[in-house]
Amino acid sequence: MPIDLHKDGHAATLTIDNERRRNAVGLAMWRAIPERIAEASADPDIRVVILEGAGELAFSAGADISEFVTVRSSPQNVAAYEHAVEAALEAVANCPKPTIAAIRGICFGGGFELALACDLGIAAEGSTFRMPGTRLGLGYAYSAVEMFVARLGQAATAEILFTGEVFDAAAAQRLGVVQKVFGKPDFEAERNALVETISTNAPLTLLAAKRALIELSRPHAERDKAAVDALVAACFASPDYAEGRAAFAEKRQPLFKAAAGTAEPRVQSDPGVKKVTP
Question: Which of 8, 145, 257, 277 is deepest in the core (most CB within 10 A)?
Answer without folding.
Answer: 145
